[in-house]
Amino acid sequence: xxxxxxxxxxxxxxxxxxxxxxxxxxxxxxxSPAPGVQFQxxxxxxxxxxxxxxxxxxxxxxxxxxxDANVSSTALGFAWRAWRLAGATYVRxxxxxxxxxxxxxxxxxxxxxxxxxxxxxxxxTVGFADTMTINSSATTTIVVGSQVLVASILxxxxxxxxxxxxxxxxGSESYDPDEEGALAYAWTAARVLDDGSREDANPLLxxxxxxxxxxxxxxxxAAGWASDTSYEFTLTVSHGAxxxxxxxxxxxxxxxxxxxxxxxxxxxxxxxxxxxxxxTAIYFKATSPDSARTIEQTAWSVGDGQSAxxxxxxxxxxxxxxxxxxxxxxxxxYRLRLTVTDSIGSTSSTVVSLTTNxxxxxxxxxxxxxxxxALTTEFEFLLDGWSDDVDDYPLTYTYSYRQRVSRRGSSRxxxxxxxFADRRAANSALTPLVADQYASSWFVTTLPQANNVxxxxxxxxxxxxxxxxxxxxxxxxxxxxxxxEDLSALAGDLLxxxxxxxxxxxxxxxxxxxxxxxxxxxxxxxxxxxxxxxIDDLMAHTISAASLVGTSSSAAAAAQVLSTVSTLTGDxxxxxxxSQTGALGLLSDVVGGAAGTGFDADTAAATAATLSSLLxxxxxxxxxxxxxxxxxxxxxxxxxxxxxxVGALATGMIAGAYGGQxxxxxxxxxxxxxxxxxxxxxxxxxxxxxxxxxxxxxxxALDEAGGGSCDADARRRGRSRRRLLDGEPADVxxxxxxxxxxxxxxxxxxxxxxxxIELGGEGxxxxxxxxxxxxxxxxxxxxxxxxxxxxxxxxxxETCFNQSQxxxxxxDVPTTFDCGESREVTLPDGSTMTFEAPVYSGDGVPLDVxxxxxxxxxxxxxxxNVTRSxxxxxxxxxxxxxxxxxxxxxxxxxxxxxxxxxxxxxxVGFPPSPxxxxxxxxxxxxxxxxxxxTSAPSPAPTTAQPTTPGxSxSPTHRPTYSPTxxxxxxxxxxxxxxxxxxTPxxxxxxTxxxxxxxAPSVSPTPSxxxxxxxxxxxxxxxxxxxxxxxxxxxxxTPxTPQxSxxxxLxxxxxxxxTPxxxxxxxxxxxxxxLxxxxxxxxxxxRSPTPQxSxSPTVPxxxxxxxxxxxPTPQxSxxxxLxxSxxxxxAPTPLxxxLxxSxxxxAAAxxxxxxxxxxxxxxxxxxxxxSLAEALEAEAVFVVAVAILCGxxxxxxxxxxxxxxxxLLEEALLPGRSPGAPMRRKxxxxxxxxxxxxxxxxxxxNYAPTAAPTSVPEGGVVVAYEVAVPSLSExxxxxxxxxxxxxxxxxxxVATAVTANNETLAVVATAVGAVDFAATRTRAPTAVPLxxxxxxSSASSGGVDAATLGGAAAxxxxxxxxxxxxxxxxxxxxxxxxxxxxxPRNSPRIxxxxxxxxxxxxxxxxxxxxxTLADEPPPPPPSRL
Length: 1424
Prior knowledge:
six-stranded mixed sheet
C-alpha cells in the first residue's frame, strides 16, 4: 500500500438462502508507524437509553525501531471526542465525556447518559504523548433506539376489595424509560364471567376519573357492582405513537370488614435474574378496617406445581418476604399468593407475578493452548456461539481464573484469642483479568504461575439484564525458571510497555503474574533484597494502574485492583514498610469508594485476605504502634486507616441485602460479619464465631440509626421501600468486626483484639453517641490466671539505703518505689509519717519498704481518635472472667479489653537502733534484730510483763542471718531465701523450690533436685543421671564417654561429622549429611536427588512405596514400564526403544520393515455416566483398558458410544431392583451441552463446563482395540480379558481415575467377548532402502501377505510350543491381587519359575525376522 492514501475494503457474506450482507472498512496508510487503535465490536452498535454501555479500545504500539526519531517517549496519549446527530450534521453535545473516559482505554456510559432515538459518533485519537502528530484514530457509531412504555398497577395481579369500601388502584408507577414527556392514562373495566369471558363494565366507572394515574371508586350494589364477583381493570398508558397496557383482577367481597392484604412495593414489570445467591423482596402490609378484628396471620404460598423452596423466609414472616432467585428456573413465571386472616377467621388474598430472565445459552468456551509457561505463554480465550432472546442483546463477556492456594497461617499476636481460621489449602477467590464487560468474545493474555500447575479459566457471558452464564476450562501453567535479575528485567520491559499503552487492566494482570513467579503467594519462601525491590516496583505500578481503570465507576475494575493487591501482599514478610503503607492507602481509597455499590463474595474474600496479610506485616507488629506514632501523624494514623477500611468493607459486603440477611468473611487476623435488620429481625444476635459480639442492642440505638421506632403497630403495618411512611424506620445494618489490635502498644494494658461495632444504613455509617440505654457486648481474650477472683498477688519487701534508689518489687503488676521522693507512709503501728530516706548510704538509718502487690482487674476501653489513647468514658464492666469481659457502653467505636490495678499499699519499717531506747517500744518490731542490742542484759526487766505475750503468729518477711533459736523451726518457711546458705542443709527440702537459684551451686548435690525447670546456665560438671527433659542448648562437649542407648526426641541442629551406623530418628534432618548413609532410608524421599545414584537402591522390579512428585534432572539408565503422565521439559536423546511402538512415529519411511501388530478387540459396558461425560474422560477408559490388558496406554484405542437400553440388564441398573419396570423416555433429562477445548493426549483434570441437570442412567459402551506386536501377546491379552470380572473392571477404572486426577464415577455392568483372530492393522507396504530408487524399492522391499502370514504362523507355532512346555511343567508364578491390577504389569501369562519370558519372546522375534529375510521378494505393485 502507498503511504498517505486511503483504501476501502468490502466483505460480503452470503448464506445458503442467497441472503447477502456487506461490511466495509477504510484503511489509511500513514507515512510513519503510528499506534494502532480500534473499537471492540461492530462499527455501528445499537443500545437503548436505560442500558449501560462500555466502549472498549484495543491499542497496540508500533514497531518502535521504525518510529520517527523526533519521538522522545513511547507513552501514548488519548483524545476522545463525541458528537450527536442533529438533522444532517453532528454537534458536540456530551458534556460529561471527560468523566466517562477517566479510563482512557474505555468510555463507560452510565444508564440514561444518551438520548433516545438519537445517533452518536465517538472518535478516539491515539498518538505518542509528547507529540500527537504521529497518531491513529478510530470511530464508532452508537444508535440509541426507543423503548416500550412500562405500565404498572401496584398491589398485585389479583386483589380483593370489600363491597362499599372506597378503593384505589394505583398506576403511578408506570413510566417512560426514554423520559420523553408526561404519560396519558386511560382506565377500563370488564366483568369476568363464569366461562372466563369478559363483559364490558365501563359504565360502572362513569362517576370516576379514568384519565388519572390513580383510579378511585366505591363499588356499591346501588351503582351496579356485584358482590363475590371478579372484575378486570386495565390501565393503558401512552405517549405519542407508543403505548402499553397492564391488567389486574379485582374480586369484590360481600364482607364489608374483611382484612386487606396490600403489596406496597414490588416491580412486576422487570425480569429477575435466576442466579445463585440473588434475592428480591416483596413488601406488603395487612390491615383490618374493623378495630375489633385484628390480624392474626399472614401466609405466603406458591402456585400449583411450583417449588415452595423459593421463599427466603418462613411463610408467616413479617414484611418483606424474600424470594430466593437461585431456586427459580430461567424464563419462567411464578405466582405468589399472600393470604391474611383476622381474629374471626375472615380471609382475603392478593397475588403477585414474578418473571425470570434466561441467561445466554448454547455456547462454548475454549482456551488455547492447553499448557504453557507462566508470564510468557499467551493464552487465547474464546467464548463462541452464545445466544439469547432477541430482547436480551447485546451480549458482553468477562474473563477470569481460579487457582488452589496454600494460605499461610499467621499469628495474630498482641494478645487475642484463638485463630479465626485454619485454612491451609482452599480455592482462591475469582481473579478477574478485565475491568469491564468486553464486547469481544476473544481475549488474549498471559497467566500466573499456579501452585499446583492447574488453573481453572472462567468465562462469563452477560445479556443486557446482566444475567450471565459461565463456563470453565482447565489449563496447565508451568513455572517459569528464571533468575531474580532476569525476572526484574523482564517485568520492567513488560510493565513499561503496558504503561505506555495506558492499559491499566493489562498492567494489573501483569503485576499479578509477575508476583506469582517471584513467589508472591508462596509464604514459605523468604525474599532477597532484590525481590523486595521488585515487589515495591510492582506496588507502584498497581497504584498507577488503579488510577487508570476507574474503580469508582466500575465494580469490576475495583475487583481487579483489590485482587491484584491481594496477590502482592500474599507473603507479609516480603513487603517493605513503604509498600505496606501504599497498599493500605490504595485499599482505603478503593474499598471506601466502592462500598456503596457493594462487593461480591470473591472481592470481599480477596480484600479480607489482603487486610489480614497486612496485619501480619511489620507495621502492625505488637510493638509497632509506638514506632508508628514516633514517625509522625501520617504513620500514627495507620491504625485508624486500617480500622476504617475494615468498616468500609463491612458496608460493601451488606450492600444490596435485605432484612434478615447477613454476610461474613474469616481470615487469620480478621473476622467480619455484617447484618441487615428490619422490624422483624432486630432482636437477632449479632455475634462472631469467637464469642465476641453484641449481646444486648437496645431498641433506642436501632431507632436512632433507622430514623424511627419499630413498635408493634409498625410491624403489622409493614412499609414501602420507595415511599417511607411517617415514623417508619429504614433497615439498619449492624457491623461487627474482630481484628488484630492495631492500636495496642507496649505497656498500655490492652489484652484483647480490637472489637469494632458500627450501625448504619443505606450504605453509610451512623454515629451513635450518648445513648440512654447502653449497648452490651462481650470481648474475649487469652486466659490470664491473675484475673481469677481468688488469686492472691502476695507481698514483697525491699530496703531504701539512699535517695537515689528506685525499688522494683516482684509483683504481677509493675510496682516501683522512689526512695528519693518524700511522701506520707504508714508505719507498722498504723501511724503515718513523712518518708525521707538517707541522702547517701550510711548517712542514716536504712528504711525497709513492704508493699502489698496490687491485684489486676479487667476493664473496658475504647480508642479515642482525638487524644489517640485508650479511654473508658461512657463504658462500664458488667461482668468479667479470666478470659473475657462484658461491657456496657453508651456509644459505638473500636473497643478492647484492658487490665487495671489500684495503687500498691506501702508500709515502711525502721531497723532497730544500736542501743536500747530509754523507753520500751509500743509494740514488737516487724523482724528480730540480728544480734543482742547490749553487751550485757539489763539489771532489771524493762517492764513488768514481756514485750510480747508469745511468739509471732506468722514467720518474718525476711530470714535472719543467724538462727533465732537453738532448735529448727517446726515448719519450713513459705519462700526460699534470696541467697543460698553458706553450708548445705543436711537433708534436702521436702518440696522443690518454685524457681531455680540464679547461680549453680559450687558442688553438685548428692541427688538431683525435683525442680521441673532447667537452670539458666549449665553446671560445670555433668550430673550422674540424665535430666528428664533436654536442655535448650546442646553442651559443647559430650556429657558421657558413650552415646545414650536411646535416640534423642529431637534431631540436633547441625549434622554430626560422621554418620551414625543406624538412623537416630524417624524424621529427616533439616540439612543433608555430608556423607551418604551406608544403607538406604526406610521411606522414599518426596523429591528426587540432584544426581542419580550409581546403582539401584532396591532390587530391580520392586517399585518404591510411593511415586515422587517431580522428574529427576537426568534420565534413568533403564526405560520405565509405562510413560509418565506429564511430558518431560526436554526431549530424550535419540536412542532406539527396546520394543516397537504400535503406531508410526513419523511421516518419513523407515529403513526397515516394521512388525505388523495384531489387534485384540472387545467391549465393556458402564452405567452411571452420560455419553458426554464419557467422551470428555476418554483417557480414563484408555488407562483402564491398558491396566486390564497389561499393556502400554499408547497401544489402546477406544470408541465410546451410548449404550442401547435393550442391551443393559435391568438388575445392573443403578438403584434398580430386579424386575422393576424401566422409566419412560420423557423422564430422562439430557445433560447440558459440554464446552469444547483443544484435544489433549492426557488431560489431568476433568471439569465439565456446567453441572448437568441429571445424570442419565442409559450408560455407555466402550469398544477397545489393543495393538500387540506378536500373536503370543495377542493370545495372552485375550486370555486375560476373558478371565476379567466386572469387579476387576471397576478396580481398573478407579485406578485410572486416580492416575488422571479425574472425578468420574462409573459402574461396570458387563465384559464383552474378546476376539483377536490375528487381525492386522494395515496391509504390507513397500519400504524403500537407502540409496535405491523407487523401482528397486518396489521390487525388493515388498512383502506379500501370504509370505508374511506364513512367517507369522511359524513364529506363533514356535512360541506356542514354548508356552505348552511351560504349562506342562505346571509350576507357575501366581501374582498377588494388587499386582494383577497394577498398570505396570505385563500381559498375564502363566510362566514356569526360572524361565525368562523376555528371552523366549526375543527368540521368537529373531526366528520371525530370519524367516522374512529368507523369503523371495514379491512382484512389483501395480501402477494403478
